[in-house]
Amino acid sequence: MGESRLARLRMPLRRQSDAPRRRFRRGVYIIPSLFTLANLFCGYACVIYSMRGEYATAAPFIGIAVILDMLDGRIARMTGTASEFGLQFDSLADIVSFGVAPAILSFAWGLSSLGRLGWAAAFLFVTAAALRLARFNIQGATGDKRWFVGMPSPAAAGVPAATVYAFPDGLIDQRGALLVLAMVIVPALLMVSTVRYRSFKTLDLQTPRPFRILLLFATLIALIVTHPQIVLLVLAYSYLGSGLIGMVLGRLKRRSDPPPPSKPQPVDPQ
């Protein structure tokens, strides 16, 4: 009888202590979605400022969206709040921030003088970003996490964003617009290609010499703060070229490797 009464007294205490924990858990679930919502807003703001011709203001919003896109997934994994809703919401936000926004930015900045050819190239970029995100949603869980198959859409969007940020005055002649075509079409084709790009999700930061990594990051931050246009432009095009260089080196290595030894043919006994 004494044990049953003690159990009855403990039950309300347990329920009262569990209530704040459940409310805290619900609050944690919404945190990654808030970062995704901020990512979506950056894409929307980039479109608005691009339409107003304020390219120096529009381009950095894509860079902010890239940072937010990296944070929402990491926060969801760290807090154990990853969900199917978060995955779909993130993909829809990425189409706006890394598909529509850089396409409209590129068209308003340097493709408008080409007329239909300009907006067709911009639409190609949007389509490639949508296809890239759809393929990633299907293959992301089963592929090798060390590599991306095709250029990731945030990095592809960073190419026109960094270019516009470095040269914000815009292009009005058709000769310059032809170079903008390459700036848009090359990342679009790389997004839907099978060229492998390095993923930094599996980067091991638990190194025995952490001061080198801290010094490297400090140097990178200092360079971005002092020379943001040049550094971001170099980073964007270096990552774009890294996949192509890796593909070429891989093919050269396979050609130089000796062929595997042939198996001896069985002798037919007479």
Description:
This protein has 270 residues and is mainly α. Helix content is 76%, strand content 2%. It has helices at residues 2-51, 55-79, 84-111, 116-139, 153-166, 174-191, 210-226, 228-256, and strands spanning 147-149, 196-198. A two-stranded antiparallel ribbon has the order 1-2. Helix 4 (116-139) runs parallel beside helix 6 (174-191), helix 5 packs antiparallel against helix 6 (174-191) and helix 5 (153-166) packs across helix 8 (228-256). The longest helix has 50 residues, at 2-51. It starts with a helix and ends in a 14-residue tail after the last helix. The relative contact order is 0.09.
Write the layout of secondary structure elements.
Layout: H1 2-51, H2 55-79, H3 84-111, H4 116-139, E1 147-149, H5 153-166, H6 174-191, E2 196-198, H7 210-226, H8 228-256
Antiparallel strand pairs: 1-2
Helix pairs in contact: 1-2, 1-3, 2-3, 2-5, 3-4, 3-5, 3-6, 4-6, 5-6, 5-8, 7-8
Quote the distance from N terminus to C terminus.
94 Å
Number of strands: 2
Second rung of CATH, namely the architecture: Up-down Bundle
The largest beta-sheet arranges its strands as 1-2
Q: Judging from the principal axes of the Cα atoms, what is the shape?
A: globular
Computed over alpha carbons, the radius of gyration is 25 Å
- Per CATH, what is the topology? Four Helix Bundle (Hemerythrin (Met), subunit A)
In terms of quaternary structure, the protein is single chain
> Could you list the spans in which at least 5 consecutive residues all have pLDDT below 50?
13-19
Number of helices: 8
* CATH class assignment: Mainly Alpha
Q: Strand-residue fraction?
A: under 5%
Order of helices and strands: HHHHEHHEHH
User: Overall mean pLDDT score?
Assistant: 83
Question: Which structural class fits the helix and strand makeup?
Answer: mainly alpha
Number of domains: 1
